Amino acid sequence: MREKWGNVKAHFGASCAIFTVNSREGAKTRPFFTLELDMNRTIPVRCLITLCLVATCAFFANSIAVAEVRLASVFGDHMVLQQELAAPVWGWAEPGEKVTVTLGEQSKQAEADKDGRWQVKLEGLKANANGQTLTVAGSNTIDLKDVLVGEVWICSGQSNMEWALANSLNPEEEVAAANHPQIRLFDVPGHTVSPVANDECPGSWKICQPDSARGFSAVGYFFGRRLQQELNVPIGLVGSNWGGTRIEPWTSPAGFHSVPELKEIADQVDAYDETTQVQGGSPSAIYNAMVHPLAPFSMRGAIWYQGESNGGEGESYYHKTQALVNGWRKLFNPELAFYWVQLADFQQPTDSPEGGDGWARLREAQRKALNIKHTGMAVIIDIGQANDIHPRNKQDVGWRLAQWALNQTYGKTDLVPSGPLFKSHKVEDNAIRLTFDNEGGGLIVGKKEGLEPTQQVKDGKLQRFAIAGADKKWHWAEATIDGGDVVVKSAEVAEPVAVRYAYSMNPAGANLYNKEGIPASPFRTDDW
Q1: Is the residue at 415 inside a domain?
Q2: Which residue has the higher pLDDT, 32 or 406?
């Protein structure tokens, strides 16, 4: 918010005199300059004159600076603007001041409102890999250099999204190769919270090169790298992430209000004011400080890697995912693509066919959330590490997220977006037949090792399928691929009613893939 000057106040005490120049921000004032004089000491006149001159110069210098046109902090040299969609450009100026924004042959004008905020929308920008100058002119002129036009994505979540490129597999090789002038990176630094929505946050745009990519999100980088290679347009990646955080602090108040099941949280957030003490786990607190200031910057989509901190949840996480997506779409783009990572395999596996332990129910909630329009999910139960909650293979994570985006957002329908996703089941005598979406070239028994492509295991047996009858007692099952289906049965269950696949914290050995080498998501046909 731009400042206006308020008043000068003097306070005389027994031993000192305090002079305060106040600045006003809306209805509020805050001290700008304070001069305290010790009444028990003799002050030379020339010193008083010097102090007054310093205060006066600072006062008028800031007065002039405050009146200048300025841009929101998400704008800067080397940035990428979203192609095709309306691209808002906004900032602050003197109320009533006319501001003109020019990019190429397009020029738009706006007038700053009573609060000093102005905004224009650049329309129908075409992808441009040649740096242009974006000029903002009012009482002063701002020139942003080397502005590209292409595709912009926000990369957000907790530590596995924050995990830096320098800590992924083959770090030295990957960092050294991260020289992509058509990819630009904006990272929101620090871990900050606010009880109310902020207008600005720190950060700057950088050209993707080893020094700038080293500390950037590895998942974000590998996702953006593949998009740039496949689409051949500039890619802008906006990183905003914080390890160890839950989904609630990333969700906007509007998002909570959009889901009736979350009314209690919505009411809690509505009660916040500027004096409310919030922390990293408080609903909407991170959103207010690290997401809202980016809006309404035009973006094509979001990638999201989070859930470990909500790992004990099930259905409630499904509702919270709805709220997150709804809120961000209201903020950035009503059609914002949203692709998340299903949690990886972690901890020591158990031999219980019933499963349901650890993150099993949360993964099910993530799968269920695919009923939200224009969303997708990268399945990574084959590339986790039992002894590390931060698996180093971020390459395949980024690749699988990009697979969704290329197919669903960018219309490359020749690509299957994911591995097999459970579609339906049907009881056939003493067996259950399962059908799937995204079979691709067909179902296979596969094996994935490190960064190597998935290999088909000839004559291999499917594992981690369990079956139960009406008694709800689970048994490991024999599962076979039959054309595009999987048939599941067990000699111990004469009249089966339900199937579970990879439904445990660490479903070690789960090996259903499509021929494209992408694993099937864990699922269950029951709701017990």
Answers
A1: no
A2: 406
Euclidean distance between CA atoms 478 and 488, whole angstroms:
6
Q: What is the b/e burial string over 345-372, where b = at least 16 CB atoms within 10 angstroms of the residue's CB?
A: bbbebeeebbbbebbbbbbbbbbebbeb
Question: DSSP labels for 484-522?
Answer: TEEEEEBTTBSSEEEEEES-SS--TT--EEETTS-BPPP
- Distance separating alpha carbons of residues 361 and 368, to the nearest angstrom: 10
Residue 143 neighbours by CB under 8 Å, 6+ apart: 133, 134, 135
Residue 367: predicted pLDDT: 98
Number of domain units in the chain = 4
Do residues 310 and 235 share a domain? yes
Domain shared by 61 and 115, yes or no:
no
CB 440 within 8 A of CB 403: no
- Same domain for 111 and 167: no
Point out the domain boundary residue: 374, 409, 444: 409
Q: Is 355 left (phi over 0), alpha (psi -120 to 50) or beta?
A: left
Residue 488 CB burial class (10 angstroms; 0-12, 13-18, ≥19) = buried
Is there a contact between 446 and 497 (Cβ–Cβ < 8 Å)? Answer: no
Rounded Cα gap, residues 226 and 74, in angstroms: 24
pTM: 0.88
Same domain, 45 and 176: no
Quick one: CA torsion of 353, 418, 247, 205, rounded to 10 degrees?
A: 150
**Contacts from 143-148 at CB under 8 Å and sequence distance 24+?**
144/71, 144/75, 144/76, 144/77, 144/79, 145/77, 145/78, 146/77, 146/78, 147/77, 147/78, 147/79, 147/80, 147/81, 147/103, 148/78, 148/79, 148/80, 148/81, 148/182, 148/184, 148/234, 148/236
Please give the order of strands across the beta sheet that includes 512-514.
Answer: 455-456, 443-447, 512-514
Domain shared by 80 and 36, yes or no: no
Does the pLDDT at position 2 exceed 80?
Answer: no
Supply the CATH number for residue 120's domain.
Answer: 2.60.40.10
Q: Do 21 and 95 share a domain, yes or no?
A: no
pLDDT, tens digit, 9 for 90 and up, residues 462-479:
999 999 999 999 999 999
- Domain range for 268: 151-409
Q: What is the pLDDT of residues 498-517, one digit of tens each?
A: 999 999 999 999 999 999 99
Phi and psi at residue 513, in whole multiples of 5°? -135, 170
